Amino acid sequence: MTTRQAAHDARMKRVLSYIDQHLEDDLGLDALSAVAALSKYHFHRQFRASFGISVHRYVQLVRMKRAGQVLAFTQGASVTEAALDVGYTAPDAFARVFRERLGQTPSAFRDTPNWEEWLAGLWPMTNARSRLMKTKYSLDDVHTVDVPETPVAVLQHRGNPALVGATIQKFIGWRRAVGLKAAASQTYNVFHSDSEITPADEFRVDICAATDRTIEPNEQGVEAGVIPAGRCAVLRAIGSENVEPAIEFLYRDWLPSSGETLRDFPLYCERVSVVPVVAEHEVVTDIFLPLAMTSHIEA
Fold first, then answer.
1. Does this model's pTM top 0.70?
2. Closest to 129 (Cα-Cα) out of 283, 241, 281
3. Which has the closest alpha carbon to 232: 144, 117, 124, 109?
4. Angle 220-225-228 (CA atoms, 0-180°, nearest 5)?
5. 231, 243, 249, 251: which is closest to 284 by C-alpha?
6. Closest CA to 288 of 272, 270, 273, 263
7. What digits encode the pLDDT tens for the residues 276-289?
8. Phi and psi for 262 in degrees, rounded to 5?
9. pLDDT, tens digit, 9 for 90 and up, residues 224-262
């Protein structure tokens, strides 16, 4: 990459970060071109050329995603509060944009989300972010820890990865019903398969919460489980779009250089902070790669 290209990318990344942090504020062309330190007469064309989406639509989608997360995962969330949270003072204008971009009214999404249509509607924004917002990791970012055995409550998701949001909703409902607050009980995901290579109907991930309580029979299907004790390599990802790059770095770069061998348990993560408690760019995820008790370095 040339120095000039790197400077251009840095300007655009600065704009995306600013949007993340100022959803309630004015995000018009004048404000964002000033953040980029580019002429407003050309900034919108440069943005579209860089990301394949207009800056206006990008801002709309970031706002709609944040509002949708609040509506789907926050008990008692109102459409008006969700609109105000992302900078809309007129709920009717917010509802019109939400339906136009994501295929449902905000109230319908809150009650019965269509997760597949939601992901499809957000794809232009997701694709744009993937171009610049990924973190570059180094070997020094990874450390090894001895993890104690952790009893957990588990809700298994089986099938289309686009519908994981529905499983998360069910799990949140169970936690509320039994009074197991996220602030007092770590949240984990255990990845039994990779959505990129696994047929949708065979995809499997576990949604877990640390607890040594007895898990009573329940309509959500939550059961007792355990994350086994053992050594793990750990890498922290900041921002939801950095989880997959962190996983890829562990397998592609860290593992071959480490001399370690893997243990017979899936990759998993701890969701240290999650949406909608924090905004997506503030999400913290610790990735755990299970390791054998001793390393095997070949001569």
1. yes
2. 241
3. 144
4. 150
5. 243
6. 270
7. 889 888 999 999 99
8. -90, 150
9. 999 999 999 999 999 988 999 999 999 999 999 999 999
